[in-house]
Automatic annotation (TrEMBL), chain A:
Name of the protein in question: Tripartite tricarboxylate transporter TctB family protein
Species annotation: Billgrantia zhangzhouensis
Signal peptide range in chain numbering: none
InterPro entries (alphabetical): DUF1468
Keywords: Membrane, Transmembrane, Transmembrane helix
From TrEMBL, chain B:
PANTHER family: TRICARBOXYLIC TRANSPORT PROTEIN (PTHR35342:SF5)
The organism's taxonomic lineage, starting at the top: Bacteria, Pseudomonadati, Pseudomonadota, Gammaproteobacteria, Oceanospirillales
Residue stretches spanning the membrane: 12-31, 43-68, 74-93, 105-130, 136-156, 163-182, 202-220, 256-280, 352-375, 387-403, 431-448, 468-487
Keywords noted in UniProt: Membrane, Transmembrane, Transmembrane helix
Sequence ranges assigned to domain DUF112 in this UniProt record: 21-436
Keyword Membrane: yes
Any matching Pfam family: TctA
Claim: Membrane is one of the keywords in the record: yes
Annotated source species: Billgrantia zhangzhouensis
Top-level division of the source organism's lineage: Bacteria
Name listed for the protein in its UniProt record: DUF112 domain-containing protein
Length: 165, 502
């Protein structure tokens, strides 16, 4: 009989790891945020002002300046600051295929929810998330999803009166 | 005041209120005992279940969940040296060595009783400070409120992460997100390119995405977990009363430290427990035992981290300013029920704050009982397979987001914020300031505009008011002092690295 209290038998098929330079990952994130902020800044300038104090665009304008200043400083720190040690720090993403797959599964579940309904949607989502999370025991893979589905349905709909139209 | 306390006590005549307290305590223990999950994620996950509840029942459930998660965080720290919450790290320093000595039961007993003492004492402090604070805050004008909100944000941003700039960036991101939607004063649509955005970003789905779905992705990264060794629980009910009586001064001191550190926005339970632990070691007759299985070490850490729960509720209830991500999420939960925390809450809806005070006191024996009676069960909770937890969290988050408005838009928001939260965490950008700014953004902007409008656009109005000037000065210092410290350290490091030429 399968022991559900632990994962001693739950082994991943593939445990891979992607290492990205911390410096260049952060620079990439800052540049993306900088571009989004530039758009936010431009849009805030187009919002109406006020003769007394600041109007609808004043606060977003100030916020975009805070974000812009922080990003410029962070980019400066990332690009100009000297490296402390010999080994360059990195960001590790373990099991990247599974992480991306879970995002895709969640998106697919969300898009198909109007057709599948919450009961089937939750069951499918939990089954796939568990499988992608490395769970390989059939009893757990096939037992938890329907229980979770029914549990959430009972709690939301029957106990708390939240309806899924 | 006593009349209002009786109103709070009267709320417990509704059987759903004590039921909510017990449910919150059980869920809190469960969440706290699982390493990686914490009170913020627990409360975010529970919000969808409160949609159909009475506001009193939901706030009592969330407060007891918050407290119980801090209780539960110590369990995996003591058993596995893997604390369920950051606030239980100091507990593990002495709890785990006791486990290795075969004294798991004693360590758990001391941790649970100390947690109860911390909650009880700090709830008294909360009652004594929050009520006068709310009465004082009734006199605040828009300048003071703007300064107060800014102070809360800057403290959280400067304390929540190693990098001050990343804290400021996170705060900016949260404030920018808060400006999406129709402008509350003029009705002009801002950054709203679809009608769904007119009411602003839905808060609960954003919280679920940032905290819960990003954690799901981290769990997927970690893969399947492995079973831990079961520990014998001998001695859990055999700790003599005199052991606790000897620590009475420590309990009082740690409760005070935990409470007042908890009041400071951004400091939170973990800072409280570390400070309390260090002070306890300083005053202990046996400081050499700290780190090797000291009863005082566990008591100091657990008393303080639970006392900080009440501490963090003080600015939330009295001023409407959340001091941590957890209380920001709680404000979101209250807003769903149309309740705005702040000084007016004590006059317009006194049942809410006074029921919170009473529920904290009533929760103590319940949580101690649940903790001691269920010790074996809580010890096994850490063994729940990680992929199963990920599946449960993902399902509740997405369905909870859908249930918030019975439409698909919040689900898309939750999913988008899940990915954004994951990327921000990978880039070491803290999430707490994002959430705090998202919650406080509207209050900050409204009071800024109101103050400037009243002064005909004169920004000196913030400096001429002594209260707002003081608060703004502290806000500036909270950023400037750590920045100066970091700069000085860099200069020192540069001088050390420079070769000495003779």
């Amino acid at each position: 009989m399968s022991d559900l209290s632990h994962d001693s038998e739950a082994k991943d098929d593939v445990v891979s790891e992607v290492k990205i330079s911390k410096k260049w990952f952060e620079v990439f994130v800052y540049i993306v945020l900088f571009l989004v902020n530039a758009f936010y800044f431009k849009e805030s300038l187009g919002l109406p002002g006020s003769p007394r104090g600041i109007g609808a665009g004043g606060f977003p304008f100030l916020v975009s300046l805070i974000i812009g200043a922080s990003l410029i400083a962070l980019l400066g720190v990332s690009l100009v600051a000297p490296r402390k040690g010999e080994v360059e720090p990195f960001i590790a993403v373990r099991r990247p295929v599974q992480v991306v797959s879970v995002i895709v599964v969640m998106l697919a579940m969300v898009l198909s929810l109007p057709w599948t309904g919450p009961l089937v949607g939750i069951a499918l989502l939990s089954l796939l998330v568990m499988w992608l999370g490395g769970e390989r025991r059939y009893l757990l893979l096939l037992g938890l999803p329907p229980l979770l589905s029914v549990g959430i349905y009972v709690l939301f709909v029957l106990v708390l009166g939240v309806y899924f139209d | 005041m006593i009349d209002n306390l009786l109103i709070g006590l009267d709320a417990f005549a509704n059987p759903m209120v004590p039921l909510g307290l017990v449910a919150g305590a059980l869920i809190g223990y469960l969440i706290g005992a699982i390493p990686g999950l914490g009170p913020s994620l627990g409360i975010a996950l529970m919000i969808p279940f409160t949609y159909g509840m009475d506001p009193i029942v939901s706030i009592v459930m969330l407060v007891s969940l918050f407290a119980a998660a801090e209780y539960g965080g110590a369990i995996s720290g003591i058993l596995l040296n893997s604390p369920g919450t950051a606030a239980a790290v100091a507990t593990a320093w002495d709890g785990y060595p006791l486990t290795k000595q075969g004294k798991t039961g004693i360590a758990l007993n001391i941790s649970i009783i100390s947690s109860g003492v911390g909650i009880f004492a700090s709830a008294v402090l909360l009652f004594l400070t929050a009520v006068p604070l709310s009465e004082y805050a009734l006199n605040f004008g828009p300048t003071a409120y703007f300064a107060l909100a800014l102070l809360g944000l800057s403290l959280v941003s400067s304390l929540s992460s190693g990098s001050l700039l990343k804290g400021a960036l996170a705060m900016g991101i949260g404030l920018a997100l808060a400006t999406i939607g129709l402008d509350t004063q003029t009705g002009v649509p801002r950054f709203s390119y679809h009608a769904d955005f007119f009411e602003g970003l839905p808060l609960v789905p954003a919280l679920l995405g940032l905290f819960a779905l990003s954690e799901v992705l981290y769990m997927i990264e970690a893969g399947a977990s492995h079973k831990t060794k079961n520990q014998p629980m001998s001695g859990i009910l055999a700790v003599p009363f005199k052991t606790f009586y000897k620590m009475k001064t420590l309990f009082l001191r740690s409760s005070l430290i935990g409470y007042f550190v908890g009041v400071i926005p951004g400091a939170g339970a973990s800072v409280g427990s570390f400070v309390s632990y260090a002070v306890a070691k300083r005053f202990s007759k046996n400081p050499e035992l700290f780190g090797k299985g000291s009863y005082e070490g566990i008591a100091a850490s657990e008393t303080a981290n639970n006392a900080s729960v009440s501490g963090s509720l003080a600015p939330m209830l009295a001023l409407g300013i959340p001091g941590s991500a957890t209380t920001a999420i709680m404000i979101g939960a209250l807003m769903i029920h149309g309740i705005q925390p702040g000084p007016l809450l004590f006059t317009t809806n006194p049942q809410i704050p006074y029921t919170v005070f009473v529920s904290l006191w009533i929760s103590v024996p319940i949580m101690v009982f649940i903790g001691l009676a269920g010790a074996r069960f809580w010890a096994k909770v850490a063994d729940i397979p990680r992929p199963a937890i990920a599946a449960i969290v993902a399902s509740i988050s997405l369905i909870g987001a859908y249930a918030s408005e019975s439409s698909m838009f919040p689900v898309y928001v939750a999913l988008a914020f899940g990915v954004i939260g994951y990327v921000l965490r990978k880039a070491n950008i803290p999430l707490a300031p994002v959430i705090l700014a998202l919650v406080l953004g509207d209050m900050l902007e409204t009071n800024l505009r109101r103050a400037l409008s009243m002064s005909n656009g004169d920004v000196m109005t913030f400096v001429t008011n002594p209260l707002s000037a003081t608060l703004l000065a502290v806000a500036v210092l909270s950023f400037a002092l750590p920045a100066l410290g970091a700069f000085r350290n860099k200069i020192k490091g540069f001088r050390r690295q420079r070769p000495i030429v003779r």
